């Protein structure tokens, strides 16, 4: 469910929007007081803010500035102010959209989902760019770490590529054998899989004795983490 924080002192409008958006799996929590809204953002997680500009005790543009400064959350300005200066200022401060009142609630619902789709895609791209150290190119049958090619034998590549495809999940020895064209249970009778794992660690780990990426899960198998 999408969770929205609304800062709106028109309680009748807030109730109408809350009930309308509920049918689209959007849960709205309204705050009449801007200071209460800012405090709640520090303890509760919301996906998006709907912000009025004419508020008691604090101008909406100042609220917008505080949110942008302290939180990474998209903002839709919902205001009856018709001055183009307010719209320009709000967008310059970092608001993601400006919806002048009155408007159709359906338009608000569409804008919410459009902004969240764009926001979440951008956040995922940034996250992947920052934390993904290893890249698997299945066409070239190559694995790189921080863009640098890792020289692997065919068996090492098969094992590591399988684990990368199932990143974060524990893979049993039997699973590795069943999904490998080069390995089988007879091949491992002398502990060859453990030898391959050890060789891979020497090629990808900073300290093979204290692995950060290729973990042994005692009694279960192995797990690969790409961060």
Automatic annotation (TrEMBL):
GO terms, biological process: regulation of DNA-templated transcription
InterPro entries xref list: CheY-like_superfamily (IPR011006), OmpR/PhoB-type_DNA-bd (IPR001867), Sig_transdc_resp-reg_C-effctor (IPR016032), Sig_transdc_resp-reg_receiver (IPR001789), WalR-like (IPR039420), WH-like_DNA-bd_sf (IPR036388)
Stretches assigned to the OmpR/PhoB-type domain: 121-226
Response regulatory domain mapped to chain residues: 3-116
One of the record's GO molecular function terms: transcription cis-regulatory region binding
The UniProt record lists the keyword Oxidoreductase: no
Listed CDD domains: trans_reg_C (cd00383)
DNA bind region: 121-226
Top-rank taxon, per record: Bacteria
Signal peptide positions on this chain: none
GO cellular component: cytosol; protein-DNA complex
SMART domains associated with the record: REC, Trans_reg_C
Residues carrying 4-aspartylphosphate: 52
Keywords associated with the record: DNA-binding, Phosphoprotein, Transcription, Transcription regulation, Two-component regulatory system
UniProt KW Amino-acid biosynthesis keyword: no
Annotated Gene3D superfamilies: 3.40.50.2300, 6.10.250.690, Winged helix-like DNA-binding domain superfamily/Winged helix DNA-binding domain (1.10.10.10)
Protein name: DNA-binding response regulator
Naturally occurring in which organism (per UniProt): Halarcobacter ebronensis
């Amino acid at each position: 469910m999408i969770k929205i924080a609304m800062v709106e002192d028109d309680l009748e409008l807030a109730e109408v929007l809350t009930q309308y958006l509920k049918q689209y799996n959007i849960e709205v929590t309204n705050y009449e007081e801007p200071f209460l809204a800012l405090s709640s953002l520090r303890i509760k997680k919301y996906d998006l803010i709907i912000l009025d500009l004419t508020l008691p005790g604090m101008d909406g543009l100042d609220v917008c500035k505080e949110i942008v400064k302290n939180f990474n959350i998209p903002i839709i300005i919902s205001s009856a102010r018709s001055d183009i200066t307010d719209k320009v200022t709000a967008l310059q401060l970092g608001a993601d959209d400006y919806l002048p009142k009155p408007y159709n609630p359906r338009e608000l619902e569409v804008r919410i989902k459009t902004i969240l789709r764009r926001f979440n895609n951008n956040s995922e791209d940034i996250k992947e760019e920052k934390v993904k150290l290893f890249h698997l190119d299945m066409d070239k049958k190559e694995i790189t770490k921080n863009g640098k090619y890792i020289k692997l034998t065919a068996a090492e590549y098969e094992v590591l590529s399988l684990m990368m495809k199932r990143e974060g999940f524990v893979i049993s020895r039997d699973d590795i054998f069943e999904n490998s064209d080069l390995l089988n249970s007879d091949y491992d009778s002398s502990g060859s899989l453990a030898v391959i794992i050890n060789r891979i660690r020497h090629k990808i780990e900073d300290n093979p004795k204290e692995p950060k990426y290729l973990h042994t899960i005692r009694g279960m198998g192995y797990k690969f983490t790409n961060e």
